[in-house]
Amino acid sequence: MQKFSEILDSQYDDLTSPYSDDQYDVIRAIRDLFRVIDKSLPEYTKVGSKPSSAFAKVQHVAPMLSLGNAFADEDVIEFVERVQRFLKLDDVPAIVAEPKIDGLSLSLRYEHGELVRAATRGDGFTGEDVTANVLTIADVPKTLKGKHIPAACELRGEVYMLKQDFLALNKRQEEMGETVFANPRNSAAGSLRQKDVAVTASRPLKFFAYAWGEMSDYPMEEPTQHKMLQWLDHAGFVVNPEITLCHSVDDALAFYRRIGEKRASLPYDIDGVVYKVDRLDYQERLGFVSRSPRWAIAHKFAAEQATTVLEKIDIQVGRTGAMTPVARLQPVTVGGVVVQNATLHNEDYIKGIGNDGEPIRDGVDIREGDTVVVQRAGDVIPQIVSVVMEKRPESAEPYHFPHKCPVCGSHAVREEGEAVWRCTGALICPAQAVERLKHFVSRLAFDIDGLGEKQIELFHERGWVQEPADIFTLKARNAELKLEQLEGYGETSVRNLFAAIDARRTIELHRLIFALGIRHVGEGNAKLLARHYGTLDAFLSAMRAAADAQTEEGNTSEAYQDLDNIAGIGDVVAEAVVEFFAEERNIKALDALLAELTEVLPAEQARRDTAVAGKTVVFTGSLSKFTRDEAKAAAERLGAKVAGSVSKKTDYVVAGEDAGSKLTKAKDLGVTVLTEDEWLALIGN
Ligand code: IVH
Q1: Which listed residue, 473, 647, 654, 671, has the most CB atoms within 10 A of its CB?
Q2: How many CB atoms lie within 10 A of CB 301?
Q3: Structural domains in the chain?
Q4: Does the pLDDT of residue 378 top 80, yes or no?
Q5: How many angstroms is it from 357 CA to the middle of ligand 1?
Q6: Residue nearest atom 13 of ligand 1, based on CA coordinates
Q7: Distance from residue 164's CA to the centre of ligand 1 (Å)
Q8: What pLDDT score does 555 carry?
Q9: Does the reported pTM lie above 0.90?
Q10: What is the pLDDT of residue 4?
Q11: How far apart (Å, rounded) are the C-alpha atoms in residues 378 and 371?
Q12: Which residue CA neighbors atom 17 of ligand 1 most closely?
């Protein structure tokens, strides 16, 4: 049994959902309240079991404070007047205006110019050690540049994700059936706090430096905020280019308006402006009131909400068949941007049920015809915050989520424990088709030279390629299609394209399996399946047997059990594979494709008789003797496992030019580091 205040304590360390700094402060206040209650009423506040924290705690040498808020111009004027009164200044002191980046703050400790620790803010006093994760962020220098390097310093700023990177990541996550993030901030927080550093490394995290904590000495005479920002820039950090030195309140407010207008077009989310008194000696004299500095304030943008009518709910179908409901709204301006659509996420969301099964919007459902309050979360995705019940038309009916794909009519399934309905039309659903075709020709699948995403879009739009088999009949149909008459094509390029397509009539089994675009079957799982079954015939007959035995209640066939028992293949993957083969139209499309192929090469069994069999290898830096894909393929053929990040379990790190943090880590852990030539010698090349 644990005390409630202890649970709230651990909330700082083990956030299951990322909180903003302001939310942290609220949690902290609640925790403090419960500490009092725990003391006076100890019997009433014991609950549940103890959550554990994945990250070590780090004490900040100088606490990471929060900022007071200003919402109106008057609040900013008052702030500056307060500063002047406190310092007894007649004139307005210079003020630095900075965009308030909507990410999560991070403190980086450097000793003699070397990054020694990175910590999250936590409750402001104690954060979490995320050094290993932060080493993967390119914007964070591992060694400070320049002459004036303090013996010890804590340099601070914001980890964030670009809006476009966030959208792309969400798309990938959705395709893989993984967590989709609500906004770039959550996405950045979730990506940073990963136990598996390789996951963080694969996420496009960025960092702006704008502050510091402990500074053993300042790198300049008469230090100011703007000079310190310049120094951070020279030391190798990225400093936000919008930051402006202001000499009057009007200047500062003009910056706020200018950046507010620019907000939607900035590549990252901001939620206001931070004004800071420029001179550090002034900052020192001004000091702090409780947990916020007197020398800075955050001027927040107004909440961006508006009321409009939800005219219709449409269903959009993504590459893996995820059916996402979208609210079509009467166009309304929310914070300067016209909003016509809002995501409704999934069936439960429309019903008023959140991801955790708890009610949202007080359990109120959303109906066509409702008047709704719309909000732009961060800057990117508009959301519906509430329904104006007084305005609900009497005729409004609860929304029935379709159980069929609105595009192709295939049946849709909602797997247990999932919120998403998915179309099972896979290869034949037009909405999925073009995305799947792109996947089919992608690098790790059929990888056809001269047939990339652009060409697929064009050929699909013209109705020339609807399903994978059509790619292989292009040549036979060309008397009619006349590809050489397309803009940018000529006789030679068409001939080359057909040759490249023909070359792929012979394909490895794992590439074929991967190319099918079955949910949860990425490159790794495709290889596991290929290795297990060995040949195409063995694979197909097992899949047919498993699919034939598929019932609503589950699958007890031997073929299914065998699939489910493959090391590395779990229930979720096994079910997705069988679901794919249970759809008659997928089988038809696959048969049509197979009729066009000459040979599907059996999987190479992993070898056990080589120097690297059973070893774990990491390739890093830029490789000059082979591409990363080649290196990976060769290593795997010889029975080695290729990993993305270095750990104690790594046997070899093969380092090319400019190898960075992975090499450093390998050296720290005493892992054997090989040059490309040494690697080639080891594998006998
Ligand atoms: S200065 C002592 N500058 O806002 C104050 N903070 O509510 C140190 N933030 O925890 C912070 N952009 O996560 C500062 N240019 C900026 C900022 C900024 C975003 C965040 C930061 C901080 C929170 C305060």
Answers
A1: 654
A2: 18
A3: 49-292 (3.30.470.30), 305-413 (2.40.50.140), 430-504 (1.10.150.20), 508-601 (1.10.150.20), 616-682 (3.40.50.10190)
A4: no
A5: 33
A6: 105
A7: 23
A8: 86
A9: no
A10: 57
A11: 22
A12: 100
| Local structure of residue 565 (DSSP, 8 states) | T
Active site amino acids: 100
* Residue 10 near residue 51, CB atoms below 8 Å: yes
Distance between first and last Cα of the chain: 60
663 phi and psi angles, rounded to 5 deg: -65, -45
Q: Kindly indicate the confidence band of residue 335, based on its pLDDT and cuts at 50, 70 and 90.
A: low
Would you call 400 exposed, middle or buried from its count of C-beta atoms within 10 A (0-12, 13-18, 19+)? exposed
Cα 300 to averaged position of ligand 1 atoms, centre (Å): 12
Tokens of 528: 């596991």
* CB contact at 8 A, 666 and 653: yes
Consecutive H or E run containing 212: strand 205-215
CB-ligand 1 contact for 98 (6 Å cutoff): yes
pLDDT at 168 over 60: yes
Which residues have CB under 8 Å from 238's CB, separation 6+? Answer: 139, 206, 207, 208, 209
pLDDT score at 400: 97
Distance 68 CA to ligand 1 centre (A): 10
C-beta 620 within 6 A of ligand 1: no
- 482 to each of 455, 462, 502, how far by Cα in Å? 14, 12, 18
What's the chain's average pLDDT?
Answer: 88
CA of residue 275 relative to chain centroid, distance: 30
- Asked if pLDDT for residue 13 goes beyond 50, the answer is no
Query: What beta strand segments (E) does 290-414 contain?
Result: 292-293, 296-300, 305-317, 322-334, 337-343, 371-377, 381-387, 412-414
Contact 200, 161 (CB under 8 A): no
pLDDT band, residue 603 (cuts 50/70/90)? confident
Token reading at 603: 């999987």
Task: Name which of 182, 174, 177 is nearest 377 in CA terms.
Answer: 182
Q: At what angle do helices 571-582 and 584-596 cross, to 10 degrees?
A: 80
Query: What share of the chain has pLDDT > 70, as a percent?
Result: 90
Helices (runs of H) and strands (runs of E) counted in the chain: 24, 28
Residues in the chain: 685
- The pLDDT of residue 606: 64
Q: Is the CB of 66 under 6 A from ligand 1?
A: yes
User: CB of 100 closer than 6 A to ligand 1?
Assistant: yes
Is the C-beta atom of 251 inside 6 A of ligand 1?
no
How many CB atoms lie under 10 A from the CB of residue 194?
18
More confident residue, 340 or 2: 340
Reported as a single tens digit per residue, the pLDDT across 397-412 is 999 999 999 999 999 9
The answer, yes or no, to whether any atom of ligand 1 lies below 6 A from the CB of 370, is no
CA pair distance 64, 122, nearest whole angstrom: 9
CA 23 to ligand 1 center in whole angstroms: 14
